[in-house]
DNA sequence: CTAATTGGTCAATAAAGTTGACAATTAGAT
DNA sequence: ATCTAATTGTCAACTTTATTGACCAATTAG
């Protein structure tokens, strides 16, 4: 059995570990880009908030953060607080239902989101070079299937 | 444009978000399996330690945990402390170099690891049913490429 | 017009990670 | 054989992040 065709290193690494480490590549790249651009006070989950908010144009309801980050509403409120204090977000009440809060990116927030997106796209591009568009498409579909599995109607936490 | 062939929901979800949520499917399943089997005191990163240790037979050096979890050596030490206290791990000093520490699964640790692995495999099997072996293989390769990108020689943190 | 539900806040606390200082062990150079 | 120097991990103090429980305000259902 020759060295040159030994099985790849990831052969018996379990999928959740691969997912974790793969995401870390993005995480490190995005964090470093933000740091270098002077946005060095974004809290851990802030990456997700800022990145996620970038695409939803009209602002994101707090409840959505709670569900997607899988944290308590108090933690979500505190996270938003921090991001508002540090100038990345602005709160707004939903005029339809004045209990509801939505958050939007501030000027500074949009700048940070842009830096983060650039870093992400750089990784995307490099990956595209390595594995090609088809594999990326299949990977995305596979990940989506996995996500759908976790969204069975009974999975929502009560709080 | 008909409803039935609208673009899939994940179309413009960025890859790091897909990775995050996909991993959450595993995380939730594994956590729930552990809870239901009575192993309800495993700390957050403990999932990774226990799952990762399951395969490395001889025990894992502490330094490896530090690098893979990307936490400080102090945090790693504390995590191991907790897992030892709660009966999942056992410490052992490397006789070659008595500074070095390795951890191995205790009896209880192995039982927890088995429960966790079963949950993981159940998700694996379900995924296999949905997307097929080929897509999983390509996904694994793609993730591995992404991980390799993040392991450039200059990426190791100093501490 | 109550009563229940939903959406969020406040306060206290717990959990997890960080930094800084230091002890023990090993390695490298005299 | 030491005498540095580097590696590996611990201790202690502190910061950050998230949780629980009690509560208030706005909305919706009877």
TrEMBL record, chains A, B:
<dbReference type="InterPro" id="IPR039422">
    <property type="entry name" value="MarR/SlyA-like"/>
</dbReference>
<dbReference type="InterPro" id="IPR000835">
    <property type="entry name" value="HTH_MarR-typ"/>
</dbReference>
<dbReference type="GO" id="GO:0003700">
    <property type="term" value="F:DNA-binding transcription factor activity"/>
</dbReference>
<dbReference type="InterPro" id="IPR036388">
    <property type="entry name" value="WH-like_DNA-bd_sf"/>
</dbReference>
<feature type="domain" description="HTH marR-type">
    <location>
        <begin position="11"/>
        <end position="148"/>
    </location>
</feature>
<dbReference type="GO" id="GO:0003677">
    <property type="term" value="F:DNA binding"/>
</dbReference>
<keyword id="KW-0804">Transcription</keyword>
<dbReference type="GO" id="GO:0006950">
    <property type="term" value="P:response to stress"/>
</dbReference>
<keyword id="KW-0805">Transcription regulation</keyword>
<keyword id="KW-0238">DNA-binding</keyword>
<dbReference type="InterPro" id="IPR036390">
    <property type="entry name" value="WH_DNA-bd_sf"/>
</dbReference>
<protein>
    <submittedName>
        <fullName>MarR family transcriptional regulator</fullName>
    </submittedName>
</protein>
<dbReference type="Pfam" id="PF12802">
    <property type="entry name" value="MarR_2"/>
</dbReference>
<dbReference type="InterPro" id="IPR023187">
    <property type="entry name" value="Tscrpt_reg_MarR-type_CS"/>
</dbReference>
């Amino acid at each position: 059995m020759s060295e040159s065709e030994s099985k790849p290193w990831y052969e018996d690494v379990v999928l959740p570990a691969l997912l974790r480490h793969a995401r870390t590549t993005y995480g490190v790249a995005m964090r470093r880009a933000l740091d270098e651009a002077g946005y060095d006070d974004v809290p851990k989950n802030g990456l997700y908030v800022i990145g996620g908010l970038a695409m939803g144009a009209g602002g994101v309801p707090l409840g959505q953060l709670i569900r997607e980050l899988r944290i308590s509403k108090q933690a979500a409120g505190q996270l938003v607080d921090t991001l508002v204090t540090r100038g990345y977000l602005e709160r707004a009440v939903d005029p339809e239902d004045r209990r509801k809060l939505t958050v939007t990116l501030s000027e500074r927030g949009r700048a940070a989101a842009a830096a983060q997106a650039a870093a992400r796209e750089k990784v995307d591009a490099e990956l595209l070079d390595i594995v090609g568009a088809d594999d990326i498409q299949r990977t995305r579909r596979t990940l989506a299937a996995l996500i759908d599995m976790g969204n069975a109607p009974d999975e929502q936490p009560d709080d």
